[in-house]
Design goal:
By secondary structure, this protein is α/β, with parallel strands linked by helices. It has one domain: Aldolase class I (TIM Barrel, Alpha-Beta Barrel). About 40% of the residues lie in helices and about 15% in strands. The strands form two sheets. The protein has an eight-stranded mixed sheet with strand order 1-2-5-6-7-8-9-10, sandwiched between helices. Strands 3-4 form a two-stranded parallel ribbon. Helix 5 links the parallel strand 5 and strand 6. Helix 4 runs parallel beside helix 5 and helix 9 packs parallel to helix 10. The longest helix is centred in the middle third of the chain and has 14 residues. It starts with about 20 loop residues before the first helix and ends with a helix.
Length: about 300
């Protein structure tokens, strides 16, 4: 059971990220505002927003910025969802063109109010980016679609370059961390994505420091490999506000390195593991690395 206290030690120095400032940061912030778009970088209070936006990369969040689930770790607003905006895919594509992106990452809030969970908008966004920005790769970080295989098939038919769905934590902590989600359902989604498009890398990620132990993390990693995941991200959970789940432990950098070594030995084609790693952190290079290792080049 999670203990409602923060670690007594101060936040370690390795968790310091660049401040959100700079010319590129301001330009991207203005672009997102002008096009009436949402990013998980801002909505989820990502610590890497300063670094990523100054590199002119962002993770676009479609289907509004209000989530139908109340996960205990997430800073995204919860409540009644916004109407679906069918012009949104074109605006995301416009932003990708303005930024000159060669690799775009698109995610969404959970939309349990919709039968397809928002899969249609994912497919439309993938196609809109491809039509607007020639050669741009598209990674999608999707919700579980409440287990709907038809919804996942809608996304996969648009042929994303990476299909990402995060397990987030170990099964024992799901009721506190991922309210409304099911561990086995998420694993089944990843396996089905790999079955539908075997050449498309499947990716997943976890947050550490929520009360899991090493054996539990390793068991999740083994489950991911067994269900077709080739790319893994591991990062430190950071509490967005006092209303959210507490941090139980700050995971040392050395432990993240150890998980990376273990993960690669298990069979992951690429493991991005570190305190400030998030799901879309260095996403493009992670995909390239995984493809190189998978091909044996």
């Amino acid at each position: 059971m999670l203990v409602s206290i923060e670690p007594r030690a101060a936040r370690p120095p390795w968790l310091k990220a660049p401040a959100p400032a700079g010319e590129n940061y301001r330009e991207l912030k203005n672009l997102v505002a002008r096009l009436h778009l949402h990013t998980v970088c801002e909505s989820a209070a990502c610590p890497n927003v300063g670094e990523c936006w100054n590199r002119r990369t962002a993770t676009f969040m479609i289907l509004g910025n209000v989530c139908t689930r109340r996960c205990g770790f997430c800073a995204v607003q919860k409540g009644a969802p916004l109407p679906v905006d069918y012009d949104e895919p074109a605006r995301v594509a416009e932003a990708c063109a303005a930024l000159g992106l060669r690799y775009a990452v698109v995610t969404s809030v959970n939309r349990d109010d919709r039968r397809d969970g928002g899969a249609e908008l994912f497919a439309l966004t993938i196609r809109a980016i491809r039509e607007r920005v020639e050669g741009c790769k598209v990674e999608v970080l999707v919700p579980d679609f409440q287990g709907s295989q038809a919804a996942l098939e809608t996304v996969m038919e648009a042929r994303p370059d990476v299909l990402n769905h995060n397990l987030e934590t170990v099964p024992r902590l799901y009721r506190q961390v991922r309210l409304g989600a099911r561990y086995e359902r998420s694993l089944a989604l990843l396996a089905h994505a790999k079955k539908l498009q075997p050449s498309v890398p499947v990716k997943s990620g976890m947050m550490l420091g929520l009360g899991e132990n090493r054996d539990e993390v390793l068991e999740v990693m083994r489950d991911l490999v067994a269900h077709g995941a080739g790319i893994l991200t591991l990062g430190q959970y950071l509490r967005p506000s006092p209303r959210h789940l507490p941090i139980i432990r700050y995971v040392p950098v050395e432990e993240f390195r150890w998980y990376k070594q273990i993960g690669e030995a298990m069979g992951f084609a690429h493991v991005e593991s570190g305190p400030l790693v998030r799901s879309s952190y260095h996403a493009g290079s992670a995909r390239e690395s995984s493809l190189v290792r998978t091909s044996g080049a």
